[in-house]
Design a protein that fits this description.
By secondary structure, this protein is mainly α. It is built from eight helices and two strands; from the N terminus they run αββααααααα. It has a domain of 127 residues: Tetratricopeptide repeat domain (Serine Threonine Protein Phosphatase 5, Tetratricopeptide repeat, Alpha Horseshoe). Pfam families: TolA_bind_tri, YfiO.
């Protein structure tokens, strides 16, 4: 008896099983695909978000850089303007300095001219007004013409022009009999007469001076010169008396020392 054959499954069941298995596989694959697509989408979204964020940062940085560039340009323009202003200020200062120096020179010149004018006026006024004079320890005032007449006459005496000095000094005494120069002029006129060898006139002049001005600082010298004039006239006796008078009146004067020596030579 031949082996009994197994009953075969219906084909429709096999197909159903295959279809179920395929469906299961397809569902798993679909789920896997869905999972993979979600992760990829999330990753893509993250990348996009990051890209957007980077774009925003780049835009912000670009805007900041642009703003900084604009500020730098503004600062550069400001610095350029400031440099131009400084250059202009330097130029203005140089011009002002030049004007100031010119003004100072003009002021100095005006001051010099003013000083010259004031000095000229002072000189003219001084020539017209009485001036203070100090002579032989005495102070007095004298007219400009009086001073000039005195100085001119004394210049002749200092130059050794005795014969011209005598009349000049005599003329001064006649014109200015009350002058503060009077006593000094008498003394020097006696010296001029002695220098001109007019000894008699010198004796009269020196005696008049010594009698009129015994307190004058040149009185001792006048007595000594008087004694010398008398000695030149060979009036030795009178000369000795004059020297003794000098020693008595002015014992501590320098003229007294000379008088002592002169007495030793007179016989």
């Amino acid at each position: 008896m031949s082996a009994q054959r197994q009953p075969s499954r219906p084909l429709w069941r096999l197909s159903a099983v295959a279809l179920g298995l395929a469906a299961a596989l397809a569902a798993g694959a679909a789920q896997a695909a869905l999972f993979e697509d979600g992760e990829a989408r999330k990753a893509i979204l993250d990348l996009r978000a990051r890209a957007n964020q980077n774009d925003e940062q780049r835009q912000a940085q670009a805007a900041a850089i642009k703003q900084m560039q604009e500020q730098i340009q503004l600062l550069q323009r400001s610095l350029l303007d400031l440099n131009n202003q400084l250059d202009q200020a330097k130029g203005d200062n140089a011009r002002l300095r030049g004007q100031l120096e010119q003004t100072q020179r003009e002021v100095a010149e005006l001051q010099r001219k003013q000083k010259d004018i004031v000095q000229s006026v002072d000189d003219r006024v001084r020539k017209l007004e009485p001036q203070s004079v100090t002579l032989d320890g005495r102070s007095f005032t004298a007219e400009p013409e009086e001073i000039k007449a005195h100085d001119d006459a004394m210049a002749l005496l200092r130059n050794g022009e005795f014969e011209r000095a005598v009349p000049a000094l005599a003329a001064f005494l006649r014109k200015y009999p009350e002058s503060g120069y009077r006593d000094s002029v008498r003394y020097w006129m006696g010296n001029a007469q002695y220098g001109a060898r007019a000894y008699k006139d010198a004796v009269l002049t020196f005696r008049a001076f010594a009698t009129a001005a015994p307190e004058h600082p040149r009185a001792p010298e006048a007595l000594l010169a008087l004694a010398n004039s008398q000695a030149e006239l060979r009036d030795t006796k009178t000369a000795r008396r004059t020297l003794e008078e000098l020693l008595k009146l002015y014992p501590k004067s320098e003229a007294a020392l000379a008088a002592k020596d002169r007495l030793l030579t007179l016989k």
